[in-house]
Amino acid sequence: MIESLGAAVAHYADQGFSALRYKAVPYIYQSTPGQDDLYALFRLGAARLRCDLSCAGRPTGGATPQRAPTACSEEGSPGRRHGEP
């Protein structure tokens, strides 16, 4: 990742660009959250200009939220919290 972003920065610098704006995908939407992109930018000396916040709320209109299955539950069986029988 560091090499990829470094190559992108070098390419755009050769084209005359002096800045690159990057907005990371929130980790909750990634299949395997690692934030290696943010680490690579840190290692390349990038500066954070802003940090946006987001939130999720319960649906309205009578919908009942359901618990999602846990990663260790078998497919088709209801999810259980850690420590529940």
Q: Could you characterize what this model shows?
A:
- There is one protein chain.
- This protein is elongated.
- The relative contact order is 0.13.
- It has helices at about 1-15, 35-45.
- It is mainly alpha-helical and about 80 residues long.
Q: What is the gist of this entry?
A:
The chain is an all-alpha fold. The protein is built from 2 helices and no strands.
Catalogue the unreliable spans: none
Written as H for each helix and E for each strand, in order along the chain, the element string is: HH
Main sheet? none
Assembly annotation: single chain
Tags for this entry?
85 residues; mainly alpha; 25% helix; 0% strand
SSE blueprint:
Layout lengths: L1 H13 L21 H8 L42
